[in-house]
Specification:
The protein has 3 helices and 5 strands, in the order E-E-E-E-E-H-H-H. It is α+β, with helices and mostly antiparallel strands. The protein has a domain of 56 residues. InterPro entries: 4Fe4S-binding_SPASM_dom (IPR023885), Aldolase_TIM (IPR013785), rSAM_sf (IPR058240).
Length: 85
Protein backbone atom coordinates (compact mmCIF):
# COMPACT_ATOMS: atom_id res chain seq x y z
CA UNK A 1 0.00 0.00 0.00
CA UNK A 2 1.33 3.42 -0.90
CA UNK A 3 0.49 6.55 0.98
CA UNK A 4 0.84 10.13 -0.06
CA UNK A 5 0.95 13.20 2.12
CA UNK A 6 -1.44 15.91 1.06
CA UNK A 7 -1.96 19.00 3.18
CA UNK A 8 -0.70 17.30 6.32
CA UNK A 9 -2.93 14.26 5.85
CA UNK A 10 -1.81 10.77 4.91
CA UNK A 11 -4.07 8.94 2.53
CA UNK A 12 -3.88 5.80 0.45
CA UNK A 13 -2.54 6.58 -2.99
CA UNK A 14 -4.66 5.26 -5.84
CA UNK A 15 -2.78 3.07 -8.26
CA UNK A 16 -2.76 4.18 -11.86
CA UNK A 17 -4.15 1.70 -14.34
CA UNK A 18 -1.82 2.86 -17.09
CA UNK A 19 1.95 3.31 -17.08
CA UNK A 20 2.99 6.49 -18.87
CA UNK A 21 6.66 5.56 -18.71
CA UNK A 22 6.25 2.54 -20.99
CA UNK A 23 5.52 4.76 -23.97
CA UNK A 24 8.17 7.38 -23.30
CA UNK A 25 11.18 5.65 -21.70
CA UNK A 26 13.56 2.80 -22.20
CA UNK A 27 16.42 1.78 -19.96
CA UNK A 28 19.80 0.57 -21.16
CA UNK A 29 21.48 -1.73 -18.67
CA UNK A 30 25.26 -1.91 -18.25
CA UNK A 31 25.53 -4.91 -20.59
CA UNK A 32 23.59 -3.15 -23.38
CA UNK A 33 20.26 -4.87 -22.76
CA UNK A 34 17.30 -2.58 -23.28
CA UNK A 35 14.61 -2.91 -20.65
CA UNK A 36 11.15 -1.42 -20.45
CA UNK A 37 11.57 -0.15 -16.90
CA UNK A 38 14.15 1.23 -14.48
CA UNK A 39 12.82 -1.19 -11.84
CA UNK A 40 13.85 -4.13 -14.03
CA UNK A 41 17.39 -4.15 -12.68
CA UNK A 42 17.58 -7.95 -13.10
CA UNK A 43 16.87 -7.67 -16.82
CA UNK A 44 13.77 -9.88 -16.90
CA UNK A 45 11.77 -7.73 -19.34
CA UNK A 46 14.15 -7.11 -22.21
CA UNK A 47 13.31 -5.57 -25.58
CA UNK A 48 16.70 -6.37 -27.09
CA UNK A 49 20.27 -5.12 -27.01
CA UNK A 50 21.40 -1.57 -27.78
CA UNK A 51 24.74 -2.91 -28.98
CA UNK A 52 22.98 -4.91 -31.71
CA UNK A 53 20.08 -2.66 -32.71
CA UNK A 54 19.44 1.02 -33.31
CA UNK A 55 17.53 2.75 -30.52
CA UNK A 56 14.76 3.82 -32.90
CA UNK A 57 14.09 0.13 -33.58
CA UNK A 58 12.96 -0.31 -29.99
CA UNK A 59 10.06 2.04 -30.71
CA UNK A 60 9.12 0.72 -34.16
CA UNK A 61 9.46 -3.09 -34.22
CA UNK A 62 6.01 -4.76 -33.98
CA UNK A 63 6.97 -7.32 -31.32
CA UNK A 64 8.43 -4.58 -29.13
CA UNK A 65 5.33 -2.42 -29.64
CA UNK A 66 3.25 -5.33 -28.36
CA UNK A 67 5.46 -5.65 -25.26
CA UNK A 68 5.23 -1.90 -24.68
CA UNK A 69 1.44 -2.04 -24.92
CA UNK A 70 1.37 -4.80 -22.30
CA UNK A 71 3.60 -2.70 -20.07
CA UNK A 72 1.37 0.36 -20.52
CA UNK A 73 -1.60 -1.60 -19.20
CA UNK A 74 0.46 -3.08 -16.34
CA UNK A 75 0.15 -6.72 -17.48
CA UNK A 76 3.64 -7.75 -16.36
CA UNK A 77 4.28 -9.00 -12.80
CA UNK A 78 6.90 -6.27 -12.39
CA UNK A 79 4.19 -3.66 -13.02
CA UNK A 80 2.03 -5.05 -10.24
CA UNK A 81 4.65 -4.18 -7.61
CA UNK A 82 5.79 -0.89 -9.12
CA UNK A 83 6.33 1.81 -6.53
CA UNK A 84 5.61 4.64 -8.98
CA UNK A 85 2.26 3.48 -10.26
Amino acid sequence: IRYEKNGGELRIKNRKKKCDLASSNIVILADGKVSMCCYDYKGQYIYGNALENKLKDFWQLPDIRKKRDLAKTRKYPLCQVCANY
